[in-house]
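hi support,

uploading two proteins for the ticket. first:
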Amino acid sequence: MAAGVLVKTCLLGALAFLSGAHAQCDNVVITNTWPGNYQAEFTATAPAAINGLSLDVVFSSPVDAVDFYEGQSTKVDDTHYTLIDNNINVAEGAQIKFTFQVHYSGVTPLVIHEVLNGAEICDSAFTTPAPMENPCAATGMSPYDYSQVLCMSYVFYEAQRSGPLPADQRVTWRGDSALDDGSDVGHDLTGGYYDAGDHVKFGFPMAFTATMLAWGLIDFAEGHQNAGQVEYGQAALKWATDYFLKAHTAHDEFYGQVGAGGTDHAFWGRPEDMTMQRPSYKIDESRPGSDLAAETAAALAGASIVFKSVDPAYSDEVLGVAKELFEFADKYRDIYDNSITDATAFYHSWSGYGDELAWGALWLARATGDDSYLTRAKGFYDEFSLNGDVVQFAWDDKRAGVFALFTLLDGSSEYQNALVGYLSWLKNEAPYTPEGLVFLDAWGANRHAANVAFIALWAAKNGIDTEANQEWGRGQIGQLLGDNPKYHSFVVGFGVDPPQKPHHRSSSCPNPPADCSSGLSNPGPNPHVLYGALVGGPSQDGSYTDDRQDYQHNEVACDYNAAFSGALAALVELS
């Protein structure tokens, strides 16, 4: 092909491609980025014998310069460069590999078209994935489609997955990420969940998330079955517990965090594009973490119940690790963020570790039927005076859950009275927004309402003030789904006027990959709908703005959706 014809072909292609979205050519991999620059690696199979290379490259947006280390780079126009290497000699079918550097001033320019020695080797015009549609069909359930929202809640967990993604992944705009997690300590720590709108894997709230997913699957099994969500719920739980098994690297050793909070939060982009260091942090005999170890034990014990009939071998495996972690938690006592200090600014254990020791013992008592765990739970209850005033039930304070499990396993009036008293306080004395949402914290008010709605619906199912607790729990979930006439739905992708700009990095970034530095301040909706995510919620005065930059009220998190999922399953049972 004559050079003039080649240039004309590329320019016409560029004009066509630049009219829409494009994917990076598969043979170009960005290996390093910094402001206004990236370094990339080109790898291709020679379509014919090559004696001297000429590669015409078209970019998706203007480029200031291209550095081609093995030869010379010639600018044709702002989006079209020709790379020349007269010294290369490659046989047909052999591999061509080289690096180059791109300098730019605007959005990240992607390589969208390539012609190698007259042969077209990449045309990305038809590789852009279609926008993801909601994979959860409406069922017609009223007053709200609890089954559909439950389905969507589990879709949200797929959007939070870290590591290599499975073939049945429903969130199409996510890809494999953080594949080197644990390499700094010589362990495979891939997998698990990104915590919220960021990409840190914080083990403490992740463990609480898993415990609550397990509890919902166990005690609202009928609701999950009726909604067709049993397998999806189990998959969401197992994604966490598989990771916990990897993180348990020795008898008294457990990795409780991957990624440094400050470094991670300084990056606004997709997890697939991370280049920062992701340090791994552990607890062990010399640096213990009773709350983290005991909460993870609770999660694994709950999972052993969930998988007992469907995968007995896995059930036995997670139960064995749960027992080891619980003994570790009790024998070597300390608050976990005294050992994993990076977590202190994000998930400090304000309530201490006594509630987790009781909670873990109760879950092991339930999973094993061994009354010695129940006896130990009672000892922790007394030792740490867990019968005091309770406000929240969340990743930090498990006491309301302790009251519930004691009521189930022991039946003593002492524990049931504590549960009834807490639920009475919620209904009659706790603060509320003007619209009727129980308001237990300025951060993630919706999450706290969902958590205690779960407790109320669980109590109702177990014969405790059934009618009143059902009504109250249904009302709180209704606040999240649309009963609040001022703000409509707080669940992304569901109901009337749902949030469109959640504080969430990966859904705020375009796919195909492009520069996401303006993703936080983008005035429009997130490019991808984060189906099923429950946003933080309003201030106590009821005010709320769908603002991506307001992480206090509009961030999402794995623990926000955990008890929420179980509460939805409870309402499916009642519908």
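and the second one:
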Amino acid sequence: MLQVFEITVIYLLTVVSAIVVDLPSGKVEGLTNTTLNGTQFHSFLALRYAEPPIGSLRYKPPEPIKPWDHTYDATTEKNICYQMARNSDLESEDCLFLNVFTPKNLTSFAPDLAVLVWIHGGGFLSGSGYMSFGGFGPKFFMDSNVILVTLNYRLGAFGFLSTGDEIIPGNFGLKDQVLALKWVQKNIEYFGGDPEKVTIFGQSSGGSSVGYHLLSPLSKGLYRAAILQSGSSLSPMAYQRNQTDYTYKTIKLLDPEFNSTNSTEILEYLQSLPASKICKAASTLTSETETPATYQLSKGFFYSVTKEVCHDGAFLTKLQYQSVLNGEYNKVPILIGNTDEESLALLRLGDLSFLWNAYDSDPSILVPFDMNITSNSTLKDSVGGEILGYFGRFTKNPAKLIKHHSVHDLEKGNIKLASLMAAFSTVYFYQFSYSGKMGNNPYAVPGIGKVAHSEDLNYIFSRSYSEDIPDNSDLSKFNQTDQTVHFRIMELWTNFAKYLNPTPEGANQELLQNTTWFPIDQTFRYLKIDQNLSMQTGLPKTEAFMFWNNLYGKYAVPPLDTF
């Protein structure tokens, strides 16, 4: 499951002094800090952007925070949202907070800085936007003179449970993100940010969240650009087409005697329970009922994004693949890509025999749910047989298994999304292929890529690796090539946020090796980020992608949702 890819760190800031900002809703007190490069910046931690979603607000859209008459303490990070993957003393339903980090001198300023709003990954099951529980430190962004906003949103059974109607429509975690983006529009100027220069970015399920914001009418006008790292709205992991089934299964774990399918009675029952009990049931469902046939990275997380019935406040009411195909989305410049071997991180699970034994004995479970195939003979003999025939038997061959999951689970969806959106928008595609100490990845398998899912985050967020490297913004811990790749990706990402072009005129040409990153046009092209930068023509992993693309063309039954 995706949570095995997470990085948990402890990250401390050196405090210089306190600072107070007067927002429309009230005063907030933050901290003034300094990066190792000498950039002074201000941190406002765990600012409330919504009322606590507790009691009668559980399984309801988030409500904007009410004004306050005291000075809000924004000097420490607070609660995290309930985690379906692990326990923490910080878990609470009162978790809808965001952090703001700004390098602006707030005594006298113009609100003109570009703003990047980070949406964390974790399979919609775990994680947070914090430094101390996620490792999303701001120092590199502060040195790049942009504002960074990171946020929490409801996860798992609290954020994505649905009864398939208007009573519990689902997608509450995404609606939390929308309200956070509205908060940014209303408040970011007081931190020196330009509300018309907001870029949303995320990785894994956070990248998928960004992809869904491109589709949702609720998000229109709340950002002007988007960065999707290793995840999109077409990622198979990031959509659940059977959400009501998992809702009923969750309730059965809570109370085997509860037999009502009346949505109002279900809502009242769920609102009456302690949050910890719901979390325990959802965690049990997530960890103990998954099989290779329902492997969530390939077939969709049990608590994930779902299509809602049409109603006021709905986030998603149309199938995402069809919307993208028809150009029905919020058309802004997009930067999207993958690492060169996303599923290398599967090695953190240790023994992978439970997967390869199942695939070899029953090829039908290799067939994606999103192909909409119902015939058992077609599943097993035709499609499953073709997939197994293409890859060969998986038994005792981790390289083959990883290559399969990399392309199927994460890479092909991003490539397809970029290809489709390029017909309507400016789309920059990349493949991050540099393997260095700064990536902090201990895993390698001969014959496949060396850069795992989430590894690219170590080059853009300040975080702690170990006692030996308590702060990766101390670049003396890394060789010159690691440092150069770090500076390059920061230049590319923040240029895109500032100018809507990762290699604009006036960019640091020496650092970028005089490279121009061209968007996709009639031909697919992408930037390979390795020890050197190079523009590539054609699809990444062309053969594997075309295998899947042709398979969908041959067997998939439209309308499609993911790819």
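thanks. also noticed: The CA atoms of residues 316 and 404 lie 30 Å apart.
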